């Protein structure tokens, strides 16, 4: 990166508004001359992507398919997931796009999906946790947890654990988590779910996204011996159906500055394909193809203690029902 590009990036990053907007994406792209995501080669690699039927996930799925990945779309609605896989196959000319459905908020359904993937695929190069939504009213997942936490914290934790062996056998591999810039405003809280009487959809979403970023770092430590790299990222502010439904006033106010879904997906696809950046390090948090800090406020930094991290891992173990014996999984894979 040139001195000019570094200076520009630093100036943009100093501001939420410019950095997260389409302006930030456009200026960085021009200054650094990024190769388009679909020009990156993923031929021969197997990728599992959750939440690929709309918004950023759909755009990422299209870019991954054009890059010739063997792509498995995992989403909740079986008909919609199948239709999306067929549409992406037709648009990309890549016939290695398939559908797998599950409810990420239901641990039993996640186990079933993992078992099916293990039966049908001998390798997994990239696991992408992208599914996410802001709920205006509190919902309860099948296991009894608040739905945001169940589907965006516990579900991805369990899926990573169940597929860790396959990732290790496919190493070097990677796990990518699409978080949100909203997590900058949220502390690490355990348990991460808000009390029913204090429920606020955007606040609950931000707490879940903070937990995702911390879990990314914890998984990075634990999966390092298996040569499985872990990274989280945020897409900036993106014009998606989820944003318009979950934060309608925010979406209307900032509409001229919102990124397109394809722009929001750029960093995700780049991390899936760029071996130097994604495999040379682990545990990073990224925006626009550069690693970023995970704290902007002293209050969130104070909350992110070693004790809170241990509590979050223990919470996910308990709520997911996983036995936690990752060493045995890695040994069996080696």
Please, could you describe this protein's structure?
The protein is α/β, with parallel strands linked by helices and about 325 residues long. It has a single domain (about 40-334), classed as Rossmann fold (3-Layer(aba) Sandwich). The chain has 15 helices and eight strands. It has helices spanning about 5-15, 15-20, 20-30, 55-65, 80-90, 105-120, 145-170, 200-225, 240-245, 250-255, 260-275, 275-280, 300-305, 305-320, 325-334; strands at about 45-50, 70-75, 95-100, 125-130, 175-180, 230-235, 285, 290. The longest helix has 23 residues, at about 145-170.
Main attributes of the structure:
alpha/beta; Rossmann fold; 15 helices; 334 residues; globular
Fold blueprint:
Layout: H1 3-13, H2 16-20, H3 22-32, E1 46-50, H4 55-66, E2 70-75, H5 78-92, E3 97-101, H6 107-120, E4 126-129, H7 147-169, E5 173-178, H8 201-223, E6 228-233, H9 241-246, H10 248-253, H11 261-273, H12 275-280, E7 284-287, E8 290-292, H13 298-303, H14 306-320, H15 326-333
Parallel strand pairs: 1-2, 1-4, 2-3, 4-5, 5-6, 6-7
Antiparallel strand pairs: 7-8
Helix pairs in contact: 1-3, 4-5, 4-11, 6-7, 7-8, 7-14, 7-15
